[in-house]
UniProtKB/TrEMBL annotation:
One of its GO terms (molecular function) is transaminase activity. Keywords: Aminotransferase, Cytoplasm, Glutamine amidotransferase, Repeat, Transferase. The keyword Chloroplast does not apply. Homodimer. Catalyzes the first step in hexosamine metabolism, converting fructose-6P into glucosamine-6P using glutamine as a nitrogen source. This is Glutamine--fructose-6-phosphate aminotransferase [isomerizing]. The keyword Transport does not apply. Its EC number is 2.6.1.16. It catalyses: D-fructose 6-phosphate + L-glutamine = D-glucosamine 6-phosphate + L-glutamate. It is found in: Cytoplasm. Residues 42-181, 214-359 form the SIS domain. The active site is at 364 (for fru-6p isomerization activity). Its main location: cytoplasm.
Length: 369
């Protein structure tokens, strides 16, 4: 049942290219139009939206953080992202022109469900992104976009995460299209890049041997830090979460620019720091900023594990370990950069002798608040 893999998690990591392809399937017309057929909100409802809230927990929250960058950039409406467990306790301001996007693999997470109910009481329109047909969250939502990741068995979310990202991108592009903010050819250009990501990821997955070796090397580290900017920031948080939940190690993700406001004091000789470097194309400024953050931590003795885009040759000079991922437009990059971090956490956990699929103290779906 594990298809020849030692763990469900490894099987599910390997299934990610197909899961992305399946989530895209049938959602894109030949002309490049985006068809969200399970979304029962009218185009007019979506044109009336003046604010988006994205609410989720854990890994799904990290997908939501990426979505915020994409939605604000493409759709040009304010988009907030919040942890479901915090959302309703701060009396958020919602009304019928608010679109609330809830993201949940299981569709049963109690915190997310409670946030959804709160939003509905305030008359917001609720759109769910969910991997489990017929579960409670999509049933209580106004509309649902199902991710077609297939059942996820391992407690650590992997293929659900990348398919959630795809669903978020589709929603962002759909909103931009029907609101006339992006031209059809701009949408088509992103869509054609999205369509290439399964192949890009398949290729990336064939060369993860170095990451496995690195994992064996890092298994005794007392902490591992992760830094990133822009969409690389949620990827850093996700890398740290995976490591905590699977390897039971101290790990923390930071926005790279925040280092000098405190966390840089943590860096000691040999502290491993995983650095997610943005693409040099398009937003080169962002990439250069991360490169200078890498230099800062290195100057203080950090051992740098750098995840960068193929072709960014210069970055090798700052990397103790370099992991190159296929080129993608900046906003789509988490579909690539998150994957070596999943493998790193899985392999470190295995090297430490943990039950990768069933980490202690955790359940696959968290049905209590
Ligand atoms: O089923 P959900 O997406 O609502 O679950 C949310 C979190 O509990 C989940 O993503 C959790 O953080 C994962 N175990 C992370 O790998």
């Amino acid at each position: 049942e594990k298809g020849g893999y030692d763990y469900f998690m490894l099987k599910e990591i390997a299934e990610q290219p197909q899961a992305i392809a399946d989530t895209l399937l049938g959602r894109l017309s030949e002309r490049g139009d985006i068809v969200l057929d399970e979304v029962r909100l009218t185009d007019q409802d979506l044109r009336d939206v003046d604010k988006v809230f994205i609410v989720a927990c854990g890994t799904s929250y990290h997908a939501g953080m990426v979505a915020k960058y994409a939605i604000e950039h493409w759709v040009r409406i304010p988009c907030e992202v919040e942890l479901a467990s915090e959302f309703r306790y701060r009396d958020p301001i919602l009304d019928r022109s608010t679109l609330m996007i809830v993201i949940s693999q299981s569709g049963e997470t109690m915190d997310t469900l409670m946030a959804l109910r709160h939003a509905k009481e305030q008359k917001a329109r609720v759109l769910a992104i969910c991997n489990t047909n017929g579960s409670t969250i999509p049933r209580e939502s106004d509309a649902v976009l199902y991710t077609h990741g297939g059942p996820e068995i391992a407690v650590a979310s992997t293929k659900a995460f990348v398919t959630q990202l795809v669903a978020c991108y589709l929603i962002g592009l759909h909103l931009a299209q029907i609101r006339g903010v992006m031209y059809a050819d701009e949408v088509a250009a992103v869509v054609s890049r999205l369509r290439r990501t399964p192949d890009n990821l398949r290729e990336l997955l064939t060369r993860m041997e170095d990451v496995r070796e690195l994992a064996r090397d890092l298994k005794t580290a007392s902490t591992i830090l992760f830094i990133g900017r822009h969409v690389g920031f949620p990827v850093a948080l996700e890398g740290a979460l995976k490591l905590k939940e699977l390897a039971y190690m101290h790990a923390e993700g930071f926005a790279a620019g925040e280092l000098k406001h405190g966390p840089i004091a943590l860096i000691d000789k040999g502290t491993p720091v995983v650095c997610v470097v943005p693409s040099p194309a398009g937003r080169g400024v962002l990439r250069d900023k991360v490169v200078s953050n890498i230099q800062e931590v290195r100057a203080r003795g950090a051992r740098t594990i750098v995840i960068a885009e193929e072709g960014d040759d210069e970055v090798a000079a700052y990397a103790d370990h370099l992991i190159l991922v296929p080129r993608t437009p900046t906003l789509l990059a988490p579909l690539m950069t998150a994957v070596p971090l999943q493998i790193l956490a899985c392999e470190i956990a295995a090297a430490r002798g943990h039950d990768v699929d069933q980490p202690r103290n955790l359940a696959k779906s968290v049905t209590v608040e």
